[in-house]
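Incident review: delayed structure delivery

Summary: a single-chain prediction request sat in the queue longer than the usual turnaround. Root cause was a stuck worker, restarted by the on-call engineer. No data loss occurred. The affected request and its eventual output are reproduced below so the record is complete for anyone auditing the incident later.

Affected input:
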Amino acid sequence: MQHNEQTENMALLYAYGELESALQGAFEKHLTGCKECQAVLRACALTYAAQPAAAAPKIVFAPAQAGQKTPPWYKGLFTFKKLVPAGVLAAVLIIVSAGALKFSGPQAQYLYLQEDLYTEITDIEAMLDDMDDYWPY
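Output delivered after worker restart:
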């Protein structure tokens, strides 16, 4: 393996522990004889060592911690007075939706077609009655 841009990228991946295991053996053989890749690994190690240890992030639970005011938009958001009407509204919407589904299903279409068929039959009967006037039996 010759030193090129690809092996340099492999050196970076190796330094961060991200190099695929299939490529790792071949790269380690290359690393024993390549001064440039060894320099890349040394630079990564020095950069990593120079960084200060990261502090754990402080977790803040909103909205009510000791000494913290509740935001104005949150006050009374989940009160009983607001939740009961919302629950009633949801129940009414569910009932209305169920009723709409019942009357908009295949049965409603069948009733519509049945009415159309009845009007067509009466129209045909009227036409036949008119024809009787012109052609008596």
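Verification: The chain has three domains: 5-50, 72-98, 105-137.
Action items: add queue-age alerting; document worker restart procedure.
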